[in-house]
Each structure stands twice: as structure tokens, then as C-alpha cells.
Amino acid sequence: MHIEKINPQIFTNEYDIMCQRLFPHSNKLYDSPFGAMWGIIEPGEISKIHGHHEAETFIIFKGEGIVKVGKKEEPVTQGDAIFIPPFEEHSLKNTSDENLIFFTIWWENTFSKKNSKKLNSGKKKYLITATPPTPNGDLHVGHLSGPYTGADILTRYLKLKGNEVFYMSGADDHQSYVPFKAGQLEKSPRETADHFANEIEKTLRLAKINPDIFVKPHFSTFHIEFVKEFFEKLWNEGKLVEKEVDILFCKQCDKHLYEAYVRGNCPHCNELSDGNACEKCGRPNLCIDLLNPTCKCCGSEPEKSKIKQLFFPLSNYKTQLKQYYKELKIGPHLTALCERMLDEDLPDIPISHISDWGIPVPVEGYENQTIYVWFEMAPGYLSATNELIQDKNLSYTLRDFWNNQDTTIINFFGYDNGYFHSVLFPAIWLAYSEDITLPKTMITNEFYQLEGLKFSTSRGHAVWGKELLENASHDVVRYYLSYSRPETVETNFTMEEFNHIVDTNLNQEWESWLHDLKCRLEAEFPNGAPELETLSGNYLMFYQHVNRIMNEIMNAYEPNTFSPQKVVRLLNELVRIVKKFSAGEEFLTVLKNNQQRRNTAIALELYTAKILALFSSPIMPTFGKMLWGDLGFNIEMQLDEEVNFLPAGQKVNLQKNYFSKTNDSFYLQNI
């Protein structure tokens, strides 16, 4: 227990009246979620008109007067309690011949902002997937710009809001591009897959991309057996069909051609395409229907050969897919692909190929064929979930994720993989279980070019993720990849623009403001963050502007409107307006009796810095965490119901430098 004596001898002059503050306690004996004081207004005097972001209540102990709140005036007397909403300018005047004695208490609430959204609307469960990369090479910057940074950014944001979020990816071992690459390297497919899967994981770690599970099929406890059982279930239920069909065969190489081994013109758009799917228009092909096909191993024209092959009949799921697309949240490019395919006859998709690389088909008579890798991936997501549950020792079952409408599943992938994720996989999952939980949102990206041309490992036209991340911090790399992310159209990476954007925005804008704020805090507020005194006029307008930007940032982070590109631009705008605000306030420092306004101005800048720390952290995790700690917070960063001002007196210790320059030699050799 602590008893505080009300003592007029220690009154201070605040708001043009004599007051004694009671809470928060001056000696920091304890914290309180509110502020309180009592005051005396002498006859004929009036408190200074002001407004602030807290709600407040006056209680009149003695005397009578007039309270003004906004444009309204009301008489008040002993025993009256007056509620004052946030931001309303107010004053209290003594109209009697004796002292007016009153008590006031104020607190931060949900701000009563009309139409404001809650920052944290309740804990939810999310399962986020990024399409497994093919381990036929390391990740270049083009790969990083798409699903992997995107999924990591969204995961971090949703966790920041207090949700339960799991991020899954893995290596796509059984792609035909793995043995094709192995042949070029004169290594075994197994050796090639394992080597590049390890390199991919290293690159992801350098980029601070941290999936909760990264599945390597060859080493998985579940993957191969689960895929076989899944395949057998569909076969036994008559959901797969057998056909005798023509396929392409290279006599010179003695090889049946599909996917990585054949090249021709797409039967749908006439662009050059590999077998099974066109990365330009996104539509599937049967390989045999490619125009002007050639063997990619020797360049010769293949022959036709008849074999028995297993197919998955997409057309059986047309009605269910049509209904699913009414609720699925996807972008315009993928919408066009889905609707165009539904408008035509959905094809039967070959799901087995003659090959010695991959999971053997578990059906008698198909011992020399393996399961088509894009069919394998559909059950692969389910088996990866089982592995996640085991690896993280979760109390969930597979059904808790994939047969539970309370789980939100979100897929990240490039548009060139769009048909597989939006048409083939949902149909396969529906064939497996009619009550399966399908993804609610699919987030795609377009191609990311390098110096105006497509990334090409064969031509050496690439900036490798590992090289860039070893010469520039992961924060600035993630910042620039978000800034230039190919969300709806193809975008371009250049080393020159990378350095220009990082230097202009981060070094000249963000860094300079934070350093300037550091200097002002050290000179004017060595005892910690100032107390917010008043919030009206230009200060209120600035505060509301900052909050509008914050709401736009939150909207750009949400799954259905996800746009890291927009987030970065809004963060830049946040820094721009606070620099402008700060520069304007400097003119007022020459005035006498300006401390109240100065306190408010610096409190607003610290509030903006807090928002910058919170909302930059999903994109720039190390910077966000560092700034959060430098602002004096020793608790884990999390979005609560609202973002509040820094507590008065909280120690702030900003850094001199937050961003380092890109290695000059790396820049010069890549420009």
C-alpha cells in the first residue's frame, strides 16, 4: 500500500492552473494504466484550452463553473462528472467567488475513431506455403523476389498480430530438371538434388527467410509413403484412368520425352515451351501436342511412340472448381487463366511418365513409370503438414489443418506455376476428400527480369541470392525486393537501381531522420521520452495523417490485398511526412514558453518511430527489432488493440547507423 498526500505546497502550473499529479506515480513506485491529478482554478480563471488523444473525465469536488468541450458549453457544479472524448478541445472556467477544486483522470482507449479497424481482431490459425524450388541450382534474386520473401513477410506480419502461423516449403526433388542438370554436371541426380537443396536452404537463411518446415523428400519420414498411399486411394476409387496414347520418343537418346527433355511451341499461345506446361501463358500441354518439338538433349526431332499411361480427368471437377473460384481470392492474371480454362474443355492430365527418377507408380503394370512430379506435389503439401506436426511437436492432426474451416491456407507461387496450384491441385485434393479445406487465398508474382532480360543460369545472366546477401544486409535486400516485387506485371532488377534506392530512401531519408531525432533527444530529453501534453491543431492533423498511413500499411499486409511493394512506399511516405513535420517544428524552438509544444512534437516523432519499427519488421526483421529495442521496449514486438505513445520517461537510445552500404567491389563488378 502507498498513501499519497494531497499537498498544495508542491503544486505546479499546468494548463494555466495549479495542479498536483497523482498518477503515474512520480517515483515510479508502480505503473498505472491511467493518469490522474487534482487542481485548483481561482475565481474568474480558466484552464488552457487543449486536446489530446486520451479520453478524460473531470469530477468537480467544490465550486461551480463552465466546461467547454468542442463547441459546447455547459454549467457544472460540485458532484458533476464530465466525460471528454479523445481529441476534443476542452477547458474549465471558474465562474464563482471561491476556488473551483476538481479531480481529473485520463486514459488511452481504443481512441473512438470512427470506422477504425482493430489491429488485432483475435487469434487465428494460418498455414502458408511457398511452392518448393527445384534443386537444380541455387536461388537467384529472381527466385527470392517471389514466393519465398512474400510468404516470409506475410508470416511475420500475421505472427505480429498474435496469430498462430506456420510456413511450409521444401525441395522439389523429383522434377525432371534435376536429372537433366545432373547430366550436364556429370553427377547423379541424387547428388545434384541434395547439393542444391542444401544451398537453397543456406540462401534462405541468409535472407532471414525461415520456413517452419523445409521438406526434403528423400529424407522425409512421411513424403514418399504418403504420396504412394494417396495415389493408390485415387486409383482404387476409380478416380484415375488408363489410356493408350502417343508420346514423344528420341531414338538417338533412347529416351521418352516429357517436361525438361522436350522443347517446342505451345499449342495455346505458340511461345516456346517445355513439356507439360507453358510458363508464358500458364496452360498445360500433353507434350505430344507441342508444335515443332525437339529433344533438348541432342536437338533432334523426336518420333511418336505408343504407351499406356495414367491420367487424372480434370473435367470431372469442373463444377466444383467453378464454385470454388467464387470464393477463392486471387489476382487478375490468375483469374483470367482459371476462367479461360473453365470456358474450354478441361484436359485429362498425364500423371505417370516413363522414367527412373521419382516415386514409382504403385500400380501393377507401371513398374517402369514414376508419378508425375506436379501430381506428387498435391499430396506433398499434406505430408509436409504431417512432418510439421511431428517436427514442432504440435497437438494438431492433419485434419485440424486440412479439414477445418477455422484454418486459413494461403499459397504463394509464381504465375508460371499458376495452373498447377489453382486448377490441378484443388481438383486432386477434392478427389481425395470432398470435405477438404482448400486454400482461401493464392498470391502470385510475375517474372522478375535482370537488366531487362529473363534470368538465365545457362547464360550466366543472374545475380545469385547468396552473392548479393553476402555483400549487402538482408534487410536492405528484402527492402529492395519488396520495392521492386513483380506483383502484377514483370519488373526489373538492376544493381544501379538497387544501390540508388537503398541510398536515397534508407540512407538519406530513414537514417538521416533517425540520427537527427537521436541528436535532439540527447540534447533536449536526456531523461527519456517526453509526456504528450496536448494534441490539437496541427499536432492532431499530423497524428491523424500518421494513423491513416498506418491503416493503409495494415491493409497492404493483409492476405487478400497483399502488396509489399505498397508497404515499402507507404513506409517511405511515413518517413517523408515526419521529416517535414520535424523541420517545421524546428522554427518554434526559438520561442519562449514553448516546452509543451516541444514535448508534443517529440512525442509524435517517437510515436512515428514506433510505427516504423512495428511495420517495417515483417520486411526488415533485424532493423525493426533493433529500432524497437532502441525505443526502450524490452518486450517482444506485437501489435495490440492499438498503437500507443511511448510512456513518459522511457529511455530511448537510437543508433548512429542502421544501414550499411553494399560492398563497393561487388557493386562495380555487377553494374
From TrEMBL:
Coiled coil: none annotated. Pfam families: Cupin_2, tRNA-synt_1g. It comes from the Bacteria. It is an enzyme of class 6 (ligase). SUPFAM superfamilies: Anticodon-binding domain of a subclass of class I aminoacyl-tRNA synthetases (SSF47323), Nucleotidylyl transferase (SSF52374), RmlC-like cupins (SSF51182). GO terms for cellular component: cytosol. The keyword Protein biosynthesis applies. It catalyses: tRNA(Met) + L-methionine + ATP = L-methionyl-tRNA(Met) + AMP + diphosphate. Residues 40-105 form the Cupin type-2 domain. Keywords: Aminoacyl-tRNA synthetase, ATP-binding, Cytoplasm, Ligase, Nucleotide-binding, Protein biosynthesis. InterPro entries: aa-tRNA-synth_I_CS, Cupin_2, Met-tRNA_ligase_1, Methionyl/Leucyl_tRNA_Synth, MetRS_core, MetRS_Zn, RmlC-like_jellyroll, RmlC_Cupin_sf. One of its GO terms (biological process) is methionyl-tRNA aminoacylation. GO terms for molecular function: ATP binding; methionine-tRNA ligase activity. Its EC number is 6.1.1.10. Residues 126-510 form the Methionyl/Leucyl tRNA synthetase domain. CDD domains: cupin_DddK (cd06988). Transmembrane segments: none annotated. Belongs to the class-I aminoacyl-tRNA synthetase family. MetG type 1 subfamily. This is methionine--tRNA ligase. It comes from Bacillus mycoides. The lineage of its organism: Bacteria, Bacillati, Bacillota, Bacilli, Bacillales.
